[in-house]
Every structure is written in C-alpha cells, then in structure tokens.
Amino acid sequence: MPGAIIIQGNIVWYITSDDNEFNKNKLICESSDGKIIWTKKAVSSDIAIVNELCYYIKVVDFFRTTELCVCNAQTGNDEKVLYREMDKKRDLILHKCANRTLYLSSSSPLDSRLYRVNGNKLDQLVKNSLLQKPLGESIYGDDCILTRN
C-alpha cells in the first residue's frame, strides 16, 4: 500500500514498501501507462516535487531518517545529498507549505531546527526552539513560521 502519491501530467511518484527489505520503503517514478522510469530505495514516506526536482529522505536501520536528497524528478539522475543528520536522536521531516514552499525540520525531543529548501541549497531559519511549524511564504516573500520556545 503506497504511503505518498504525487501526480503531475503523465508521471506518478509514489512510496511503497520494498519487498526485498523489511521495514524500508522505495520511491517509484512511473509513467501513466505503468512503465517504471526510476526508483530509489531505503526512503521515508516524505517526498516532494518542486519544479523539476524530487526531494526525499533516506533512512537506515528502523526508519531512522538520515539524509535529505534531491534528484531530477523526470530522470532520477543528478542525485545530491542536501543535508545529512549525524545525531541519531534527531528525525528529519519534509513540510510542503503554501506557495509551493518546502521546509526541512530536524528535531529531537528537546529542540527543533528549521530550514527552507531552495533548489539545491538549504537556508536555516530558526534554531533551537521546542516546536516549529512552517506555514509557507507570505505574499510579501517572508517565511511564516509558528514557533514555541
């Protein structure tokens, strides 16, 4: 059963369980006629397609999120690691928000860090608050974020 599904034109991206790897998912990109275009293994259920880029989070062990990766959404090529979390107590989550904005949070039970994803780079927005909830970009171009210290 798929976790996340994104459809744009004649292409579908979705997350499904990997039959060969217990407790790991795979990301599949396929055409509307069912032909698989590309796949990525060992990913979380967080995926986002923004412009021509596909963002996903890689996992190790029992769903420990470790890396935010990006690749060409159409081909799966040009894969890059945008962020690598070294602290095993932190989790990575993608947030898809208003005005096609994308954010990454790295959080532990004690604090959270929030980054705005801009193409192939990350801009850190808020450090070390207990809770951060991105809402998206305002009509003035500012990032709207709810925080709790």
- The outline comes out as globular
Strand percentage, roughly? Answer: over 45%
Q: How much helix, percentage-wise, in residues?
A: under 10%
Which secondary-structure class do the elements indicate? mainly beta
- pLDDT < 50 runs, ≥5 residues: none
Q: Please count the beta strands (DSSP E, at least 2 residues each).
A: 13
N-to-C SSE string, H for helix and E for strand? EEEEEEEEEEEEE
The radius of gyration is 16 Å
How would you characterize the largest beta sheet? 7 strands, antiparallel
In round numbers, the mean pLDDT is: 87
How far is it from the N-terminal to the C-terminal residue, by CA? 38 Å
Number of helices: 0
Task: Report strand order across the widest sheet.
Answer: 1-2-3-4-5-6-7
Provide a concise account of the structure shown.
Helix content is 0%, strand content 66%. The chain has no helices and 13 strands.
Q: Secondary structure elements and their pairing?
A:
Layout: E1 5-8, E2 11-17, E3 25-31, E4 36-50, E5 53-60, E6 64-72, E7 80-84, E8 91-97, E9 101-107, E10 112-118, E11 121-129, E12 131-137, E13 143-148
Antiparallel strand pairs: 1-2, 2-3, 3-4, 4-5, 5-6, 6-7, 8-9, 9-10, 10-11, 12-13
Can you walk through the features of this model?
A hairpin with a 4-residue loop joins β3 and β4 (36-50). The N and C termini lie far apart (38 Å). This protein is 0% helix and 66% strand. The chain has a 7-stranded antiparallel β-sheet with strand order 1-2-3-4-5-6-7, with no helix packed on it. A 4-stranded antiparallel β-sheet has the order 8-9-10-11, with no helix packed on it. It is globular, with a radius of gyration of 16 Å. The chain has no helices and 13 strands. The chain has strands at residues 5-8, 11-17, 25-31, 36-50, 53-60, 64-72, 80-84, 91-97, 101-107, 112-118, 121-129, 131-137, 143-148. With 149 residues, the protein is an all-beta fold. 23% of the residues are buried.
